[in-house]
Amino acid sequence: MQNPEPLQTTQRPQPQLSAFLGMGFRPLYPAGTFWAAASIGIWIFAPRLASGTLAGPAWHAHEMLWGFVATMAVGFLMTAGATWTGINPMHGKTLALACLLWAIARIGFLCASPLGFVIAAASELTFFALAAAALGRAVHTARNRRNYGIPWLVLALGAADGLYLLAAWQGDYSLLMQRFDAGLLCMAVIALLITRRVIPFFAMRAVEGLKIPMHERSGQWQLAAGALAVLFTLLQWHFALALALACTAFLCGVQLLDWKPLAVRRRPILWILYVGHACLGIGLLLAALHSLGLIERAAIHVHVLAIGGFSVLIVGMMTRTALGHLGRPLVLDRMSKACYCLMLAAFVLRLIALALSNASWVALQLAAVAWIGAFALYLWRFVPMMIRPVPERGGPAKVLIKRS
Who wins on pLDDT, 197 or 3? Predict the structure, then answer.
């Protein structure tokens, strides 16, 4: 009797460095995600490790905004920029250099010596300049006029970082917080630009028959109001700042309602983005009230923006981007859904910690555990995909990106 022919199976591709450095999101998403978990672990459970020139709350604020959130934004814009322009802005050795600069900055800011701080600051600012230059080259080579402003936004984010680090070096805490607010609003402008583009695009592709506006006109007004808010923050014009923030928040609400949130309630990969966009609007409104002196604690609007807005959007965009660009079906498994739930739990627990003085430490620790758990799940699920080429079989058709 003859042996049956063996079944043909598709072998899993082997890890490849060229694949890992093929697009910006592949190394930057895992790096930023790992640091998001590690830095919160340090801040909550081992704060003595952050005792350098940039120490205590100043280190925590900086690493969350520029070490994590801004890094993830750069990773996304590098990937989206390739789709928008047909040119991969950064890959291979250039991308490896950017990642090395980013890693040197993370280590340097933990060093106790002033020299470590200087090296870290120089590395980080070079990272943002390199990212802005790569994006600028891609959009100008492609004559992609619609995105000419994006490299300048990344450069502004890096400039705010430089001003923040200068204030830290000088030991001026009030100036430090003013410049942190400027950086926070720069990041909010970038986040709103991204969500305004991707939410309606993703939703209309995923929900059959759904027609919602892209809000290009309101997005231009929103961008202008957000840019003015950054300027008014630096000038300390509080009433004008509150007005600009309120206008930006109002446009968030208009956009959200026009995007028919109930239509995506059964699709977690979409509604997580709606939640993040809503929290951006709420956070900006709270910031306006804080600017008028109606809310005393700045930590409230900062954490609504940073966790409910930026971080919720990040976990949603990381899963969507990774699945789409790695040739996988846009379907969430239980691990990805658990990641969403843990991030939302971290957000709620952090707000509870701000509201309840008696249980604040317990709630803060639980929020940290949920936060770390969310990013650990993402790393476990997606890093094995990031280090391998896109499978030849299965998943959506690949989009060819020109490399230059």
Answer: 197
Name the more confident of 129 and 388. Answer: 129
The predicted-structure confidence for 45-70, as pLDDT tens digits, reads as follows 999 998 888 888 999 999 999 999 99
Query: With contact defined as beta carbons under 8 Å apart, do 401 and 59 qualify?
Result: no
Distance, in Å, from the CA atom of 80 to the CA atom of 197, rounded to the nearest integer, reads: 11
Cα dist from 308 to 7, 104, 312, whole Å: 48, 29, 5
**DSSP state string for 320-362:** HHHHHHTT--S---HHHHHHHHHHHHHHHHHHHHHH-STTHHH
How high is the pLDDT of residue 3? Answer: 41
Spell out the residues 6+ positions from residue 113 whose beta carbon is closer than 8 angstroms to its own: 52
Pseudo-torsion of CA 28, 32, 38, 42, nearest 10°?
130
User: Dihedrals φ, ψ of 143, to 5°?
Assistant: 55, 40
pTM: 0.90
Q: Percentage of the chain surpassing pLDDT 90?
A: 73
- Exposed e or buried b per residue across 2-41, where buried means at least 16 C-beta atoms within 10 angstroms of its C-beta: eeeeeeeeeeeeeeeeebbbbbbbbbbbbbbbbbbbbbbe
Which DSSP string do the residues of 24-88 spell out, in sequence order?
THHHHHHHHHHHHHHHHHHHHH-GGG-BSSSBHHHHHHHIIIIIIIHHHHHHHHHHHHHHHHSB-
Q: Is the pLDDT of residue 396 over 60?
A: no
Task: Specify the amino acid at residue 101.
Answer: L
pLDDT computed for residue 326 by the predictor:
86
The closest of 315, 316, 313 to 280, measured between CA atoms, is 313
**Exposed/middle/buried for 142, CB within 10 Å: 0-12, 13-18, 19+?**
middle
Coil, helix or strand for 402?
Answer: strand
Least confident of 53-57, 192-196, 255-259, 337-341: 53-57
Ordered by start, the domain boundaries in the chain are: 14-171, 188-332, 337-385
